[in-house]
Amino acid sequence: MNAGFTSTLYMNTEVIVHPRLQHLGFTTGRVDEMVMWYRKVLGVRVIYRSENPTGSPEAGFRPTAVWLTNDEANYRIAIVGISNFPSYDRHHPHARIQHAAFSFTTLDELLGTFTRLSRLGITPVMAADEGAQTALYFQDPDGNTIELNASNYGDPWTSAEHMTTSPDFAEKPMGVYIDPQQMIAMREQGAAPWELHERAWNGEFAPKTPYDYMAML
After folding, report:
1. Domain map of the chain by residue range?
2. Which of 25, 115, 116, 172 has its Cβ near the most Cβ atoms within 10 Å?
3. What is the Cα–Cα distance from 91 to 143, expressed in whole angstroms?
4. How confident is the model at residue 42 (pLDDT cuts 50, 70, 90)?
């Protein structure tokens, strides 16, 4: 089923497309307290919670991930919980805003922006098809993570429904890694955005070198 955009190709790779601020991500050692606080203050509801979003083995690194919203968006707050956070100092030994996310209207806008930024020497530290959306993660000069994304459904309500009911999302809440260049090549050959999502989810556009997810925590 084609769940969103048409197959018409228009990929602006020259002019800045202005995405909207979509959500904030937090790293914390107090997940439940954070969820309750935002429930009281903003009236958020939990879209999805996973105790092992990275699918790590029992002895591996297993953070908690919670996605929250207080409106029609699939989520406005993403929380990554690390149980031993006070002593966790690989990159940032303090609680903080982990990332800020900006959303584009279409996948073409996202991929076109990837091309434009690549020409400027700005490349993502991670890229993933996360089921509900396709996302690129960059780091600014101070090391802050900035996420740029586009919904795979083109509708926030459907994206939220995917997160709350899809067994695919439950199996891989953090999604699958992608190589945007491979997706662009297939898009230029006429593949529709929904087809790109399905092929990405099946691992067809996996990068040759896996990204280091830990580098963003």
Report:
1. 20-208
2. 25
3. 10
4. confident
What is the distance of C-alpha 199 from the center of its chain? 17
Domain 20-208: CATH superfamily, name plus number: 2,3-Dihydroxybiphenyl 1,2-Dioxygenase, domain 1 (3.10.180.10)
Q: Are 99 and 216 in contact (CB under 8 A)?
A: yes
Contacts of 39 (CB under 8 A, 6+ apart): 45
- Partnered with residue 64 across adjacent β-strands are 81
pTM: 0.79
Say if strands 77-81 and 20-28 run parallel, antiparallel, or are unpaired: parallel
The dihedral over CA atoms of 136, 117, 11, 192, expressed in degrees to the nearest 10, equals: -30
User: pLDDT band for position 88 (50/70/90)?
Assistant: very low
